[in-house]
Amino acid sequence: MALMITCPVCGPRNGYEFRYGGEDKGPRPAQRELSPGDWFQYVHANDCADGIQKEWWVHRDGCGVWFTTYRDTTVNREVPPPEEDA
Amino acid sequence: MTTETKSAIRRVSPVCFAAAPGESEDRDGWQVVTRYENEGEEGPWLVDLSHRPRWDVQDGHVDALRPGGVSVPQEAGQCRLQDGLLINRMNRTQAAVWHLAGATDGMPAEAAYTDVGEATLMLALFGPQTLRICEKLSALDLAGLQRRPPFLVQGPLAHVPCQIVVAQRNSGDFGGGILWTCSRGYGRSMVHAVLDAGREFGLRPAGEQRFTDWLPSLSSD
Ligand SMILES: [Zn+2]
Hints:
By secondary structure, chain A is mostly beta strands.
């Protein structure tokens, strides 16, 4: 089965309507006293989770909204948020 | 109703039908076909509305704006039709304003407004079997039985990202009507795909008059 993604505006849709926006790494780190190393980690380093990962998507061919959702990377399926984040 | 005006600017619709125009008029620089030969009397029909004014409205408090004196719907996916003016709520910060009746007092000067009339094309498909034609063109739930027209669906039609308004759904058969916009570069292939899908149902290109006659039958607020 093809990947389905749930847009908060439009509901569940074919994954091909969306563009992947990378792992959710939390808020942008404060600029003051930010080391190049920490900035590099934030921008370029990924966890590449083997399992459930929180990530950004944009409904590119639909309403245009950016949002986060959870995906099990081992089966490439959207999954409900883990209990600690629900 | 729009009056016939001459304009120095010549505007060209991205939509072109391989049908013989019966009557046409120059309106604000657009050559508008009001009737084609051999439109048939029953429908379904495909009408080019690319000359109708369209605005994009984007603001952190888009609910507070009243384009053309009409309030913006509260929730994304909702539409409001009033006096020939259709407003589609797209997301938290954005709405689209389509002047279906043609008339406009000019776009408000606020920064929230952008004239997108020449960035997109607009088409109307309506009459018997319309929803059957839609089912061949898109996997989106345009029948939307749990929703009351007019409502907005944003997604691919003929694989092209579109803003689609289901304007009418007849109970008991597959008739109804949809209106949609997409980037104007898709004009030729969009028309080709829709007419091809509609051939078995007798779909024909029609002039603006068919749309003008149909518009008052849409339920509005
Ligand atoms: Zn969406």
